[in-house]
Give the backbone structure.
Amino acid sequence: MIDWLRRGTETPSIRIAGRELPLAIRRHARATRLTMRLAPDGSEVRITLPRWGRTADAVLFAGKRADWLEQQLARVPAAQPPQPGGTFTYRGERVAIEWSPTLPRKPRLADGRLRLGGPSETLAARIGRWLEGEALRLFAEDLAHYCARAGQPVPMLRLSRAMRRWGSCSGAGCIRINWRLVQAPDAVRRSVVAHEVAHLAHFDHSPAFRALLAELFEGDVAEADAWLRREGRALYAAFG
């Protein structure tokens, strides 16, 4: 249920089902109409406008679609931190958590199980750090692979903890990839890395960029993008 819509502030927001969500408004030169989506973690509403679009139009657009936003917000997975005897997702597969106070603190993956000891109350944080280490390793391998295919030098790589984007490529040549993608199937993760590598040559989404991405990525870009739209929110459920 919508409570109210705030228009006259620097950062407009909309209240949906008792939660105030900021409206992240972005103008794009190639946009021909307003589009809207909810952030994967449900933290904000993202609206893209044509360059000439008004903020007031975006606010009105969100208000008219409050019921749809409420439905989308209800689909955001509840937080499910990993716990002893439970599972978590790694590279698109569920991994069992085998915890015992007699096991080493450092997590070790074997036979579809992650075995670790240490305090149970810090288990989720330590699995999160293990996943980040795996993410950095896998992203680095992907980056080297696609840079070689693109004929580009390998740029600096950083993990991102962004709540808004899966990847980014800066003008200085630094590529950032959202660490949560280590939970996604390999093809989905690799599609994001290939996307950012293509930006090293084309800092836009022009036909030339699309052609290079299709040449670099071995899989189906549209299928990987569809997976992220459909399942991406779940990647935020375990570790926020």
